[in-house]
Structure formats: C-alpha cells, structure tokens
Amino acid sequence: MKIRPANEDDFESVRDVARRAWSDAYAEIMDGESIDGTIASWYSDDSLTDAVERPGTLFLVATRDDEVIGFCHAICHEDEGDLLRLYVDPDHWGDGIGSALYERLRSDLRDINMKRIRAMVLSENTRGTGFYRRLGFEKSDEATVEIGDGEYGESVYTVAL
User: Could you tell me if residue 65 is left (phi over 0), alpha (psi between -120 and 50 degrees) or otherwise beta?
Assistant: First the structure.
C-alpha cells in the first residue's frame, strides 16, 4: 500500500470509495438517494479540486496496485487540523488502511506545527466513532449536519498531537 497526495486523476475513485463506504456505514439511517446526492455535492470535481489545491489543506489517498482504496481530507487553521473525511473501501475495512492514513496525516500535521486534530463523524456511525476512540481521540463536542432532507447528529472527537 502507498499513501500519497491526491490529484485530479483520483477524483472518480475517491467518489467510488466514498459512495461504497457511505452506503455501508449509513444504510440504516439514510436512503440511497440522500447518499447519492451528498456524494454528488460533497465530492464534485469542483469540491475535490478545492480540497486538493487550497493552501492549508491535506488530501491523501491510499492505493494498492494503483487503485484508490481509501482517502482522508483535512484542513488546517491556527494550530488545529480538522479531519473532515476519512473513508476506506468497505472491502478493505479492518486491513489497517484507515489507521495508516491517519498516521500519515498526523505526521504531516506535526510537521507544520499543528497541536490538535479534530475529527467529525455522524454520531450513529459506530464503526467511525469506535475507530477514532481506538486512535486516542476523545469526544469533545456535538453538532448537527444537514444531509439531503435530513438533519443528523455529529460527534466531534479531538486528540492532541
């Protein structure tokens, strides 16, 4: 497995990973139409171009045999990084890919003197919340996020670097 910065050639694969991961993680709380609409909006070419090119943004992909199997996207402000997205193709859940992406992101954030990482995850995503807890994150806040026609609880987890 290799981890590298994302580029425009990765966009379709990133959308595929996101769609598959969302479909598995959120199937019980939202319908396919909401998932597809969110993927189309949050992972549009314009949105991904901004994520790849904007200063203070880190967007990494994990590849195996040149296939994108996971990705993470974080933004930096002041001395804190916000981990907005970290998804792995469900066929590779449990293979350590999410942890490897996180460790690379953590190292990159330390290199630019960040002090903390905050991660946002839908509260009902028990796989995601468990993942962050295993990495040493502690729940630090709650919020809501609108997705499609629904509003969902979001948990914010924080860890010091």
Answer: left
User: What angle do helix axes 32-42 and 11-26 make, rounded to 10 degrees?
Assistant: 150
d(CA 72, CA 70): 7
CA distance 141 to 34: 25
Please give the torsion angle defined by the CA atoms of residues 17, 76, 127 and 135, in that order, rounded to the nearest 10 degrees.
130
- Identify the bridge partners of residue 59 per DSSP, sorted by sequence position: 73
Contact between 118 and 80 under an 8 Å Cβ cutoff? The reply is yes
Question: Rg of the chain over CA atoms, in angstroms?
Answer: 15
In b/e form, how buried is each residue of 82-108, taking b as 16+ CB within 10 angstroms?
A: bbbbbbbbeebbebebbebbbebbbeb
Token code pair at residue 25: 């993680």
pLDDT digits (tens, 9 = 90+) for 20-47: 999 998 888 888 888 888 999 999 999 9
Query: What predicted TM-score, i.e. pTM, was given to this entire model?
Result: 0.93
Backbone angles phi, psi at 104, to 5 degrees: -65, -45
* Percentage of residues in the chain having pLDDT higher than 90: 86
Which are the contacts of 91, defined by CB distance < 8 A and separation ≥ 6? 20, 69
